From TrEMBL:
Record-given protein name: ABC-2 type transport system permease protein
Pfam family, one: DUF3526
Alphabetic keyword roster: Membrane, Transmembrane, Transmembrane helix
InterPro entries linked to this entry: DUF3526
Biological classification of the source: Bacteria, Pseudomonadati, Bacteroidota, Cytophagia, Cytophagales
Transmembrane segments: 20-39, 136-157, 163-181, 188-207, 213-235, 242-263
Amino acid sequence: MRIFWLLFSYEWRHFRAAKGLVLLCALLLLTGLYGIYYGTTEIERQRQHLTTLPELTRRNVEELKVKFPGPADAGDIGYYHTTYAVHHPDAWAALSLGQRDVNPYYVKLRLLGLQNQLYATDNTNPMKVLSGNFDLAFVLVYLFPLLIIALSFNLLSSEREEGILTLLLAQPVSSGVVVGAKLAFRLAVVLGLAWLLSVVGMLWAQVPLDGRMVTWLGLSTLYCLFWFGVALIITALQRTSAFNAVTLLGVWLLLVVLVPSLLNLGVAAARPVPQGIELTIKQREEIHAGWDRPKTQTMNRFFALYPQWRDTATIRERFVWRWYYAFQHLGDLAVAKQAAAYANGLQQRYDLVEKLNLLSPAINAQSSLNALAGTDLPTHLKFQRSATAYHDALRAFYYPFLFRKVEFTHADYAQEPTHTFTSQPELDTALRGLGKLLLSVGGVFAAGLLLLRARPINPR
């Protein structure tokens, strides 16, 4: 053990002398701090945006009170009144933004057809969506492996090329102790940085003190260990430093870029999802056709679904609001199967990726961190279901006014239902990801140790 610590201290002195490596670690530390800053700033921006929505609703109500100073037809109110289904982020979202940068975190709703409103989003710079957001999870998953490669590509090859390894192994020390000390020092540096950034991020984002802290640190640690295991395998091949560097970068490109891209193409082919534009077009066609259908036909279809309103007066006017909202809702029902198929298709794609992400620890780590932060696809689909339920509640609130011809007064605004939804972590997904990373770490270290045993270290 004394020899191990002597070698460990030698690595420390060598590291301090290598100004380039020190600068690289400092640069990564600053990059990680920027990732934390960006993530917390983005989530704070979203929170501030969400806090303005009730005020927008209040202003809309005040405008309607001026527009309709007395009792009004509820159909007019439902048409002009806007409210919001809101998706509040969990504090952990600041560390792993996940889907919150590509999917809307609020939905502006009126009493009209739901599907067009559900998928309406603000314009976003496509180049920004393509590159993704720069949060702490991005730094850990995509940049930390590059630091590990920079620290470990010449684990033994530099000593061999300089003739030092022959002198070192001539001493009463085993090659396993040499490799272990070198790996242990590099592991201490990398994990020290990862844990430091994680703790700073948790404090900065003011995350709740719960078991997710341990899970986050566990995922980060195992992911770094995996890449050290890859470096151990390449070291065991006993090739030159140049070969090791190129091979490790090739493995990084394979596991972080190529495999995820191929996996995405394969999953898209295996689990085709209906195009959202087709759903929207069909709904619009159905709604536009409602103007030309006989009112009796439209209302009979509606009453078959809502028989409690069948005893309302027959429509003889050219236009009446309850007929208008009836065919709006029928337009939603006309594409209900397509909408369900779209959501189910997205969930099936996600589930298939979860089954196959053992092929790419980068995907596994990223999806696990997103699940831990409540920013993954299943959470967004839950929000959409919540928004759909809220729209149903709005219809249930307005229908008695519309079908019983009850006047809508100023006091009725306060009775309108409201909506809120807060992300919850997908802990099962995160824990499964932790188990898969543990398997990956065990696999690469077992392969590396077997290679070292099968091919003893050659000092020349």
